[in-house]
Design brief:
105 residues, 4 strands, flat
């Protein structure tokens, strides 16, 4: 069973200069105001929680660019890249969505 956590409890555990970061892959919808045509772009965003309790949504951009960067990084490390778009990159990002903590400036 997962512990009962909320943003306030998480923020209290963060040191100065740290943040809790969760990422999310989603389909971003846009509607052209002239043609009224809707398009969907797979994208990523991050939720950032700072020690003072400030909570922000940060758009990271289209998923293709992020997944390309992850694939290049994995290739540079000599890690397998087969199926990266459908499995590895999403799993890599989801694994860090649960409870990632990283330093920020």
């Amino acid at each position: 069973m997962l512990p009962d956590l909320d943003a306030r409890k998480i923020a209290q555990r963060l040191a100065d200069g740290e943040a809790a970061v969760a990422t999310w892959r989603y389909d971003r919808w846009t509607i052209d105001p002239e043609s009224n045509v809707q398009t969907t772009t797979p994208s990523y965003l991050a939720w950032v929680l700072r020690p003072d309790g400030e909570f922000r949504r940060v758009e990271l951009g289209p998923a293709a660019a992020i997944e390309d960067a992850i694939e290049a990084w994995r290739r540079a490390l000599g890690a397998p890249t087969r199926g990266i778009r459908t499995r590895s990159s999403r799993a890599w990002i989801r694994a860090r969505s649960f409870a990632s903590f990283s330093s920020i400036r």
